[in-house]
Structures are given as C-alpha cells and as structure tokens.
Amino acid sequence: MPTPVPAYPSGYRLGSGDAPLQIEAFIDLECPFSKKAWPTLLGLINREPGDRLAITAQPTILCDHRQSWDLTKTITAVADPDPLKGWKFISHLFQNRDRYNSEAFATKTHQDLWALIRTLIQEFDDTLPADQLVKDITDEGSAIASRAKTSIRYAISRGVWSTPTFFINGSEVPQLESSSTLKDWHTFLNDL
Fold it and tell me: What is the C-alpha separation between 33 and 191, in angstroms, rounded?
C-alpha cells in the first residue's frame, strides 16, 4: 500500500524553505540523546540568520520507546501545522521527559500516559481543549494518527533507525550527534 500524500510537509521547520542550509533533525521524544541535542538545535536556530539556515524537527519513534507514539500524536494534535508551536511543545515535552520516560512508566498503564498527556497539554497551554485532544489522540483511526504517521514513514524512507539523526541538504551527517556543541555545528556548517 503506498504512503498517502500529506497535505503539508512532514515535521516542523523554522527558517526559510529557501535557505541554503536545510537541516532535518529526526528526534524521538523519549530518547535521552534527542533531549540532549535539543538545546543545541535551539541555540543554532536562534543564532543563525533565518535566510541562511532552516531546521526541521522530524518527530519519529524508536521501537523500544513505548510512550513515543502517543507523544508524537500529541505534538500533531497540539501544533499542526504551526512550526513554532511544534518547537515550543517539543521543548515542553523534553523538559518533562522524566515524567514519561521508560523508568517512570515501568509499571504504569496506557491510561496513566493519557492522563499525563492531558496534564502536559494543560501545562503548555490551558486554553487548549485537552480532554478533546486526548480523545483524538487515543483514536488510532483519527486524522491526527494519520498525520502523525507521516513523519514516521518519512523517517523510515530516509533510513533513520536511531535518534537523533541529522541530515544537511539531504545528506546524513553522522559526524554531528547528541554530544555535538554549537561550536561543532558552526565549524561543520562554515566548512561547507
């Protein structure tokens, strides 16, 4: 079965689509290494001119992170298609990772996760209809689930199997990883 064509591109891009440096950051919301890399990506997008560089955060899931799928749907429910809201909500989730990571959920249920997601949505923006969003997130046949699958299918099509994984102008860049600093990124980008 072919992948459905999405109504808009996968992920959450900050910066111009015409920027000469297009970075894609494939992240898993439960991944400690993705969390570690996130502040560097924020620093990079905040220090580089938007006409020179764009970064697209591509939420994906790793098979050993059972909370990631519902969290990826949550981003879709809360932020789509607003890239800035997506980045802010991803930051909010990473700040709260210790509340939903594997250790925290070792003995908890799916219902516990949905209750936490409701709380995380309310903490992020108490004007959002958290109860309705959680209801939509729990429905695997919903438009939200379908849209959330887009970034995951995209990651699979790009051969992403670990996170974070970075691409620059369509090429994977294994030299840049979760422990790479802003200086490492600037050195690499300035050498292109």
Answer: 25
Single pTM value for the model: 0.95
Say which CATH architecture domain 12-190 belongs to: 3-Layer(aba) Sandwich (3.40)
What one-letter code names the amino acid at 177? E
Q: Which residues of 65-101 are buried (b: 16+ CB within 10 A; e: fewer)?
A: bebbbbbbbbbbbbbbeebebbbbbbbbbbebbeebb
Determine the length of the chain.
192
Closest CA to 165 of 57, 45, 11, 21: 57
Domain-wise residue ranges, the chain = 12-190
pLDDT tens-digit map of 123-153:
999 999 999 999 999 999 999 999 999 989 9
Q: How do strand 53-59 and strand 21-27 relate by DSSP bridges?
A: parallel
What are the pLDDT digits (tens) for 64-112? 899 999 999 999 999 988 999 999 999 999 999 999 999 999 999 999 9
